[in-house]
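agent> Task received from the user: take the single chain below, predict its 3D structure, and emit structure tokens. No templates, no multimer pairing.
agent> Plan: (1) validate residues, (2) run structure prediction, (3) serialize to tokens, (4) report one or two observations.
agent> Step 1 OK, no nonstandard residues flagged.
tool_call: predict_structure(input=
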Amino acid sequence: MIPLRNTSSFVPPGPNHQSRARNPQSTRARNTRAPRTLIADDEPDILIALRILLSNEGHELEAVSSPAAVLEAIKRTQFDVVLMDLNYARDTTSGREGIDLITRIQALDPLLPIVVMTGWGTVDLAVELMRRGVRDFVQKPWDNSRLLQTLNKQVKHARARRNVQRRLTLAQKTGAQLQSELVEARELQENLLASSSTPIEGLAVAVEWLPATTVGGDYIAAFNIDDEHAALCVADVVGKGLPAALLMANFQAALKSLASQNLSPAEVTTRLNDVLYANIPLHKFVTAFYAVVNISTRSVAFSNAGHNPPLLVRNNGECIRLDAGGSVLGAFPNAPFAQEEIQLQPGDRLVLFTDGLTEASDSSGEQFGEQGLMDLLRDHRHRNAGELKEIVLSTVAQFCGDNFCDDAALMVIGVD
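)
tool_result: status=success, residues=416
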């Protein structure tokens, strides 16, 4: 089990409960319109407690007890926030019904913030929920003041996002203007990535970056730290487009600063996690692999923060997944990160990549997959780095009909 953000104890409001909203100095009283809040839970006692608490705080409420009722309410009314339980089938605690509901809510209203209530949690579940668009968590049992703080924050952010959307709609930027800005942003991002990949003594490095839109959230780099050490990094921001690109620019700046301090890979990932956790929205996170190469001994110390494991293909065809490390960056406070070390040998091919490559799908929806990539690398392991990079990209492009649905980045390192 893991602690989720905004967790503490539930204090059900009693008949003498005094609402902060009745105080003229309350935050709610200063708002021009009461928050429209949808609450969903299949336990009647929970709905009653939430209705009393939120009504006293001035929320305009609709309470429902099933996924179907949630979707019907959202079709009928524009809400400021949804507070929902994950489980509606009482004999399970998988959360699958709630996870599927989150996807359907996002399809109906992508700007509507979702706050999940749950009495349990795992790292995998939390990551899955953030991928689906959940913006915050409240763990059962809850504390009234923390719950209200969470909902008020999400209402504020939701209204800001809707105001921005309205202004953009009113502004009616022409397609030509927007495209020009995006092209310029892409040029800047390409320059940043190009400056992050420099020759490393004794290693052949070939790199390719393919954003799904004009700009993207993937990062891949090889650069010298000092005369004896070089850094390798591949990272992926959840999401695509401009928001992901902006976050990745911040990640790159933080990484370069930490790498220059000659820190161990585990220390770099730990500090990156601290920086990102303190500065990015809850529903965003970064997966990353960071390694330090000792140029003279060809040893590689690495730490993997929830990223697709790079593949080290030996001259004899053995394929090693570099997966030691920890969870994704920016999602959990004080997360521990481990590191391991491996020795490069003549004839090795080390391949770093993002999930846009392995998750590329054919017309039937089948993904190229990690196993497909491993088989391809084994078959062509005697090619040099540049040739192997081109073989991988052309094979995957042919597999998916040259239709990459996500950003993709690839680095092939040859040891000869």
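agent> Step 4: summary for the user.
Confidence is low (pLDDT under 50) at residues 1-31.
agent> Done.
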